[in-house]
Amino acid sequence: MSAKVKLSFWQIINMNVGFFGIQYSFGLQQSAVNPIYDFLGASPDELPLLNLAGPLTGLLVQPIIGALSDKTWIPKLGGRRKPYFFIGAIICSIALFLFPFSSSLWMAAGLLWILDAGNNTAMEPYRAFVVDKLDESQQPIGFQAQSFFTGFGQTLANVSLFIFPMIFIGTTGKLPTWVFASFILGSVCSIGSVWWSSYTTKEIPPTDEELQKIQSEKVSLFTPFVDIFLAIKEMPKVMWQLALVYLFQWYALFCYWQNSSKSIALSVWDSTPQKNIKLYEEAVAWTGLVNGWYNIVTFLCAFGLVYFAKKYSPKLVHFGCLVLAAIGFLIFPHIENKFLLFPAITGFGIGWASMMGIPYLMVVNNIPKERYGVYMGIINMMIVIPMFIQTISFGYIMKHFLQNDPRQAITFAGVLLVCAAIFTLFISTKKSANE
Questions:
Q1: What is the pLDDT of residues 189-243, one digit of tens each?
Q2: H or E, element range at 171
Q3: Could you tell me the CATH number of the domain that includes residue 363?
Q4: pTM for the complete prediction?
Q5: What are the backbone dihedrals phi and psi of residue 88, each rounded to the nearest 5 degrees, phi first?
Q6: What is the pLDDT of residue 207?
Q7: Distance (Å, rounded) from C-alpha 9 to C-alpha 18?
Q8: 98, exposed or middle or buried, with CB in 10 Å at 0-12, 13-18, 19+?
Q9: I need a labelling partner for 114 at 20 to 30 A (CA). Which of 24, 98, 225, 305 fits?
Q10: DSSP characters for 36-72?
């Protein structure tokens, strides 16, 4: 790869704007899809399986796209990573547009599979894009810019769940009209933001030697799987240690996202979708505001974490942020005053800012540059495998150990984050220029 040129702060922002649209879509998945399932008649113990699309598409799509992008160079389509951004964004936009027209539970679940496949196709190469474009000293800003846009995109998605019900009143088909407004806005944001990043940022072309190697390697249907297998076989120790942290961390987050609106409905409104649908709609709207707040916290503190990571090490920063998130989750289900939910979830906002950027700083110096794409895909496998385990196991736990009580699910998530924080301290990181 040709020499990396230092970019200005605003150039780094431009290259990561596409993450905004991708994360708006993920924000809708986290906060709007499960209430839509509720509106369409799903029971609490069905939700984990209905969310199976997220972990399975991530498990299959991201490492394959990462391995393929390592071996791609198509100048007419933008280069190595950008062709995948754009294809993913188009799929995502179409799925977002169609989602509100779901007339049944299984139609919504099917569209979630398509939506998640598009999101994962767009998001995976973005991690490698940062490492491709930025030298070691600028990578913390690059990754935390993605954390910033994660917070910003998901804030807009969640706040739309609060504001749009006031503007778009009534129902259209089987769903509230505000669902149409939120998802159609997401469709526009997805393709528009990715287009902006593609337009403003050029990829660094490979050297003649790298290009010759790319062109000489035969790519078949099995090539990505062989690359993934070899990369896992040769994976550095620090990535195995991070995988253990991620097992507890991401299992916990799926528990929160699936149960936050129902937990708030019970603790604040003492209601369920079956008991009083109007009160539950109020709870869903307020959950959008609460989740919007934690994402505001995320984008406000994202760049501040760069300073602390350089001063104290990424490992200690991630440990502290996980502890704050765990405290927030443990307090959350006991709150009866809806305004006190905001200070409680602030800890998760800080934790979320770390989760979306800081762990990559712990491993990036151990990854060979010619395999950035496949290893970023494997890191995502570490995210989605815990989610997959959650979708197939948590329904049983919820029904038999947590009395189908979403408040207990949030408490359970808090305990898991404490475990993740403890295991973070055992990660042995390679010293970098940023520490």
A1: 989 998 898 888 888 887 777 777 777 766 666 777 788 888 888 888 999 999 9
A2: strand 171-172
A3: 1.20.1250.20
A4: 0.75
A5: -60, -40
A6: 77
A7: 16
A8: middle
A9: 225
A10: HHHHTT--GGGHHHHTTHHHHHHHHHHHHHHHHHHT-
